[in-house]
Amino acid sequence: MAVINIPQNLSLRNAINFCNKLWSLEDDESYEFDFARLGLVEPFTMAYVANELKRFSLSKPGTCSAMNFENHSYAAHMGFFRAFGLEHGKEPGEATGSSTYIPLTILKVSDIKNEAARFGEHIGDVLEEKSKRIATILTRQQSGDLVDTLTFSIREIMRNVVEHSNSDVE
Predict the structure, then answer these.
(1) CA-CA 20 to 30 A from 112: which of 17, 54, 133, 160?
(2) Cα separation, 165 vs 153, whole angstroms
(3) Per-domain residue ranges for the chain?
(4) ∠ CA 72-75-79 to the nearest 5 degrees?
(5) Which residues contact 115 (CB under 8 A, 6 or more apart)?
(6) Within 10 A of 21 (CB to CB), how many other CB atoms are there?
(7) Neighbour-count burial of 152, counting CB atoms closer than 10 A to its CB (0-12 exposed, 13-18 middle, 19+ buried)
């Protein structure tokens, strides 16, 4: 069994280095992620690392587990652990968030299409609303050029996924 120590500080640099090392590990019978040292976690890197841990775990079916994750309430609240398949903490998107943060959230193309149909709206309007919410939280402003620019950029990223992925998955 290979024990994989999660870094103490998941800054962007550390997260990238960790994920690169993760994918370069020798094959083993099983892998155990050890969260004992985990301290500082940034929201973006939580999303990135959770995605990489999920991909890694899926590439090694039935061989990955975790330990020492119980004392990380912020990461658990934000949906970090459940985002990669560990049954601990809240589901991504379960925490309500606030005017200052958005928890990890998984948006599925099928859910966006269903939401638009349910409210009789165009998919673009649903994406606009979600993008504006993200932009106002990131800028801590309700309006202005920066909010408009971020809203446009985020909406276009999401719109491209919905329109061009030909998929109903995440």
Answers:
(1) 54
(2) 18
(3) 2-83, 109-164
(4) 135
(5) 121, 126
(6) 11
(7) middle
The pTM assigned to this predicted structure is 0.75
Specify which residues 5 forms β-bridges with: 34
pLDDT of 40 strictly over 90: no
- Can you give the three-state secondary structure of 35-91, one letter per residue? CCCCCCECHHHHHHHHHHHHHHHHHCCCCEEEECCCCCHHHHHHCHHHHCCCCCCCC
Q: In CATH, which superfamily holds the domain spanning 2-83?
A: STAS domain (3.30.750.24)
Cβ-proximal residues to 6 (8 Å cutoff; 6+ apart), any chain: 18, 33, 34, 35, 37, 38, 49
pLDDT tens digits for 65-105? Answer: 999 999 999 999 999 999 999 999 999 888 888 878 888 88
Under 8 Å CB-to-CB from 119, ≥6 apart: which residues? 126
- Confidence band, pLDDT 50/70/90 cuts, at residue 170: very low
Tell me 99's DSSP state: S
